[in-house]
């Protein structure tokens, strides 16, 4: 009936083909949202911490910034790979910390489940109570360089820089 219906929103593009037919396409105005998937390494900001979990907002999936943030949860059993029963969330994360974590499941309808149980996962950026960026001093402590105050965190091991030379 002279109408065109598309399953996506966008702008109609007409292209004349060599055989004389007209090809109709719908071009999207923007890129589709990236959704974190199971196994992805994500970067998130800790929003709230209690005895049962840390609530986070996922900001990056891999190296790509997400257009919209997604809610995530880190449970005590997913903080580290050993002594799982003795993990205290407040000794691992604080509100405002930036963490690197792995998506372990899509969780429930409200939140992705995340894990920091690998050495390279955990807190990557933290601020001290006095407002200064903290420096990692071990896998489980960070220190304020100004006040020298030490605070417990599940610290992510920094990624190794490539040396540029191949091993023989």
From TrEMBL:
Q: Where in the cell is it found?
A: Nucleus, Nucleolus
Identify the Pfam families for this entry: EXOSC1
* Exosome complex component CSL4 C-terminal domain span: 68-106
Q: Which GO terms describe its biological process?
A: RNA processing
Q: Does the keyword Cytoplasm apply?
A: yes
Q: Which GO terms describe its cellular component?
A: cytoplasm; nuclear exosome (RNase complex); nucleolus
InterPro entries reported for this sequence? Csl4, EXOSC1_C, NA-bd_OB-fold
Q: Which UniProt keywords apply?
A: Cytoplasm, Exosome
Q: What is its main location?
A: nucleus
| Entry keyword Transport | no
Q: What molecular functions are annotated in GO for this chain?
A: RNA binding
Its name, as the record gives it, is Exosome complex component CSL4 C-terminal domain-containing protein
**What organism, scientifically named, is this protein from?**
Lotharella globosa
Taxonomic lineage from the root: Eukaryota, Sar, Rhizaria, Cercozoa, Chlorarachniophyceae
